[in-house]
Write a structure and sequence with these properties.
mainly alpha; Farnesyl Diphosphate Synthase
Length: about 260
Amino acid sequence: MGILPVLDMFEERLELAKAVSFSYMIDDIFDAYGTYDELCLFTDAINRWESADVTQLPNCMKVCFKALKEATNEFSSKIETKHGWNPKRCLQKLWAEQCNARFIDLKWRVDKYSPNPEEYLNNGIVTCGAHVVLAHAFFLLGKEINKKSFEELNSLPSIISSTSTILRLWNDAWDHTDRTPNGEDSSYVDWYMKEHKISSYDIARQHVSRKISDAWKCLNKEYMSSTSPFSNDFKAACLNLARMVTIMYSQDESHHLH
């Protein structure tokens, strides 16, 4: 199942795959390839973009940043030529937001700060990368691109935040089973159990299931809305991503695609 709902969008699917790849690459850099100081510089570079100083960055971060800039510039040029809108500033902002959220998560760990579950989740729906990926899908579809939909996309509209919530909670609930209860990579489950002083994973899982169900209700409501500024194809893309997540994490262990 693909995110884009139209079957003949071969080139568009390739462009979307690039965005997904960069999101995973940024996650990997934060998880395994940088010290705190290096990641501070990397995050600053993403925020500064054109005026960034990358001289102090390790090579892997230089390569990632250069490739991300080039891909974003190329993508923006294609969209402007095809649909008359240049998404460069929007995409720069969303990439910066993803890195900022990842850095907040890193700072929490370094400072040994314990966020409450909702504080963690609000940050986690940004770190999962769904917003920036779906923004690429929005521009690739090229439908209903206007001032209202553009402004909605720049914020975190409910149709994207609900999809992101489904992705984050499924990911965290599945990851939790692969770690010790005191694992360093804390999840929503960890913080919920700590906040409510419970030791039963089953109780926490039931709570997460209710949260996912609530997110689905919100997503379905937005999908059926007749007042949404977004096209039906874009709403279908959000729905498809949530469906794909559910399928991925509902498999047995031998078929996980994590």
